[in-house]
Amino acid sequence: MALAGVLLGQITINRNDRWKARREDLHRWHEERLKLYLEILGAFEQYRQDLDDFIKFGLEKVDLDLEHAKPLFEMTNKTRLISTKEVHEAAVSVWAPCFTCLLAILSAVDDHFDSLDEDGRAGFAKLAEERPEEAFAFLDEVKSDYQEAMSKSIVLFSDAVRAELGVPGRTAPDEWQAPKLPVLRHLIRRKGKA
């Protein structure tokens, strides 16, 4: 009888230890992940501000180049290591439209500059120096093409982070959620009937 009591006690202790270990594993990376996610949000906001500043103030305030996408890209790669698949994919969906927008802006500036003759280039350079917002006004259209995708992606990223960290609620409207494949719904219904 005493042996049974000792065994039962040992089983209970082992079960509690495993439960504690699983719980600690679940929360072990919370602070690191939260810090990384906040850095991504900050880098995204800085990135958007740099794009706006470039269009408004030109090269005087922001020397826009491919290096502007690097911090966001590096943080996105870190999510692969310490995040769930959903958060990593959401981080990639934040970086992708930002990078393509940057490429489109740089390409538009190059195309615009290349389309000008010598006098036009000199005039553009002078206008860019004196009134950059007017000189780079053609970039507003390029940026607006990517604005919705960038805004949508950061909201979906925030929702993925909230879900991973166990924060209740969503911020994205239902229509922004990824559609479920109709084939999967059909298979699930079919499996349930069988």
Please characterize this protein's 3D structure.
The chain is built from 8 helices and no strands. With 194 residues, the chain is an all-alpha fold. The chain has one domain (27-178). Helix 2 (30-57) runs antiparallel to helix 3, helix 2 (30-57) packs parallel to helix 4 and helix 4 (85-114) packs antiparallel against helix 7 (138-165). Mean pLDDT is 79; it is low at 179-188.
Count, helices: 8
Overall domain count: 1
Main sheet characteristics:
none
Structural class of the secondary elements? mainly alpha
Helix content: over 70%
> What is the overall shape?
rod-shaped
Amino- and carboxy-terminal Cα gap: 49 Å
Tally of extended strands? 0
Average pLDDT rating = 79
Low-pLDDT ranges: 179-188
Descriptive key words:
194 residues, mainly alpha, 8 helices, 80% helix, rod-shaped
Please summarize what this structure is:
By secondary structure, the chain is mainly α.
Describe the protein's topology.
Elements: H1 2-28, H2 30-57, H3 70-82, H4 85-114, H5 118-130, H6 132-135, H7 138-165, H8 182-193
